């Protein structure tokens, strides 16, 4: 095992790979939306061939082989990398090709679309031998829709692959040795999701003036646009191509019922409704957002329909609103008006066209009021499981003596679910509307020991921490870029006894765990935490997304 420059907590293996600097440097990215990871780490970490000796794994070296762009190759998929791409090898070489929708064990023909240094990217043309865990995808759009990528892989194989991806990142990027005897106890098996379909409580569809049709390999056509208005999901990687979708198996039965009624009506020429054209900026209907919740008294489904339009014209929408408001589950029809040319669904103005302006959902015995644009966990069923794991990790004494700092608190749901057992919760979040929702949710649930503050955690200064007592437990649930280096330094100085790190991006999670436990010698930063547990959770079956809950304890 390599020697760390500083004494560090927890098992560590020194990773001298040059790409690691890129991963680690991304912790200082000031932009919350910036993509934190270049592709090479995922390939290097996840394509490492000898699982039995991953500490000694090396990047696959191209021998004499190097493909050309446009070349058709016979490929064999070896594993799934983070983000769901198949890690494939060109038959009889060690050359790595990343390919969307290639599945482990599958032998197929792929066409090289990009060359990227030591590896290439390809699109799948034709399966020669199917993958070993093949199942029939129940959705008709599964092979080309951007939403699901692995519906035709058995669910058991999906969760196995996700667990392996987290493990590889914790080892290769986080620099925790899987040879350490404690590793088995630290790294927990993934928690699968009982609901594998109809679990999403929020879907956003787009309107388009043309229908995107996927590639048809047999006719030699890569893709085409067809005449006819579309309402559906974006083609993978394109903001201007819409795949017309009549039904989505990820969203709830109630929202599919609403989608069917809207699909049946909106193209009727008598209504005079036009889809917005992202190139010419003409047209009215931009997006359709469907949200599902539950009535707190009856537990019956509640649906909110939100039309995002380029201007405010309620009379134009009225015939459609009349139709959908007749569906018993629909309790709210909203209109967000967005006059900008951007693709966002948040309006500058919001109008209630029917019913109430919020729907409700229950989580950990609390009731949350959800407005059209407020953040809420998109899989309510599995959120219940996730929050229980967070509470278990927090290890609260339950005597109302502890202080909880809830970083990236969103609408406050994690902090509020802990508030009943602690002295006080302090939540921080950049989005002002989310903070208003958090305060409203606290009031609605009769919680008076929670304070929510709006602020950018990428821009904290020396005064951060002056407004709250030293916490006993820090919950940190950043979005995909992970924590900014300023925040990591702050936490290392704060030295709270426990940190529960909740993450939707195992790459940045692994990087931040490395900093918190091992430090960063070149910047004189010392790690001071022990990694006690890493718990992957599947919140989104059939998609590449992976959630993790980790516990860190002060050394
Ligand atoms: C993954 S969500 C977690 C929300 C919440 N913990 C929950 O479970 O509902 C991440 C949150 O971090 C917020 N966020 C992103 N960048 C931020 C920043 N620089 N400072 C503070 N909050 C930020 C987002 O607005 C979002 O609400």
From TrEMBL:
UniProt binding sites for S-adenosyl-L-methionine: 377, 408, 429, 477
Biased composition (Pro residues): 33-42
Record-annotated TRAM domain positions: 66-126
GO molecular function: mRNA binding; RNA methyltransferase activity; S-adenosylmethionine-dependent methyltransferase activity
Gene3D superfamilies: 2.40.50.1070, Nucleic acid-binding proteins (2.40.50.140), Vaccinia Virus protein VP39 (3.40.50.150)
Record bears the keyword Transferase: yes
Keyword Methyltransferase included in the entry's annotation: yes
Keyword set, alphabetical order: Methyltransferase, S-adenosyl-L-methionine, Transferase
GO biological process, one term: response to cold
Residue numbers annotated as active site: 504 (nucleophile)
Disordered as annotated region, ranges: 25-59
Record family assignment: Belongs to the class I-like SAM-binding methyltransferase superfamily. RNA M5U methyltransferase family.
Name of the protein described by the UniProt record: TRAM domain-containing protein
Organism: Musa acuminata subsp. malaccensis
């Amino acid at each position: 095992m390599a020697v760390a420059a500083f004494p560090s907590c927890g098992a560590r293996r020194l990773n001298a790979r040059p790409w690691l600097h890129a991963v680690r440097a991304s912790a200082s990215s000031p932009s919350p939306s910036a993509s934190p990871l270049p592709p090479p780490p995922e390939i290097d970490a996840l394509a490492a061939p000898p699982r039995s000796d991953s500490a000694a794994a090396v990047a696959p070296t191209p021998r004499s082989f190097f493909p050309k762009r446009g070349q058709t190759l016979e490929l064999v998929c070896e594993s799934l990398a983070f983000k769901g791409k198949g890690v494939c090898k060109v038959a009889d070489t060690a050359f790595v090709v990343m390919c969307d929708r290639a599945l482990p064990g599958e032998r197929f023909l792929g066409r090289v679309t990009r060359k990227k240094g030591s590896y290439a990217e390809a699109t799948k043309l034709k399966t020669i031998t199917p993958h070993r865990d093949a199942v029939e995808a129940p959705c008709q759009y599964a092979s080309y829709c951007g939403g699901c990528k692995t519906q035709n892989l058995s669910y058991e194989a999906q969760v196995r692959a996700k667990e392996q991806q987290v493990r590889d990142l914790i080892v290769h990027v986080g620099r925790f040795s899987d040879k350490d005897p404690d590793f088995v106890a630290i790294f927990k098996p993934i928690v699968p999701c009982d609901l594998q379909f109809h679990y999403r409580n929020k879907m956003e569809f787009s309107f388009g003036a043309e229908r995107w049709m996927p590639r048809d390999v047999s006719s030699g056509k890569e893709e085409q646009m067809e005449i006819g208005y579309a309402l559906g999901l974006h083609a993978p990687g394109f903001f201007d191509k819409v795949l017309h979708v009549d039904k989505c198996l990820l969203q709830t039965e109630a929202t599919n019922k609403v989608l069917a009624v809207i699909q049946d009506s909106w193209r009727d020429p008598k209504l005079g409704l036009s889809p917005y054209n992202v190139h010419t900026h003409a047209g009215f209907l931009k997006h359709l957002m469907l949200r599902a919740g539950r009535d707190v008294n009856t537990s019956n489904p509640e649906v909110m329909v939100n039309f995002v339009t380029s201007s405010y014209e309620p009379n134009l929408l009225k015939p459609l609103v009349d139709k959908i408001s007749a569906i018993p589950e629909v309790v709210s029809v909203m209109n967000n008006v967005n006059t900008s040319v951007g693709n966002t669904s948040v309006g500058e103005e919001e109008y209630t066209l029917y019913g109430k302006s919020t729907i409700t959902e229950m989580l950990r015995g609390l009731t949350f009021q959800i407005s059209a644009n407020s953040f809420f966990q998109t899989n309510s069923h599995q959120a219940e499981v996730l929050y229980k794991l967070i509470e278990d990790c927090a290890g609260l004494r339950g005597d109302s003596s502890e202080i909880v700092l809830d970083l990236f608190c969103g609408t406050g749901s994690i902090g509020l679910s802990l508030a009943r057992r602690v002295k006080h919760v302090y939540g921080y979040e950049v989005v002002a509307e989310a903070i208003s929702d958090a305060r409203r949710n606290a009031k609605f649930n009769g919680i008076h020991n929670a304070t929510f503050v709006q602020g950018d955690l990428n821009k904290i200064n020396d005064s951060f921490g002056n407004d709250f007592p030293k916490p006993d437990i820090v919950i940190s649930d950043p979005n995909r870029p992970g924590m900014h280096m300023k925040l990591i330094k702050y936490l290392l100085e704060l030295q709270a006894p426990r940190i529960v790190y909740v993450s939707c991006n195992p790459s940045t999670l692994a990087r931040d765990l490395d900093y918190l436990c091992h430090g960063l010698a070149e910047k004189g930063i010392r790690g001071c935490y022990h990694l006690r547990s890493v718990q992957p959770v599947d919140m989104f079956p059939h998609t590449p997304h992976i959630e993790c809950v980790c516990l860190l304890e002060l050394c």
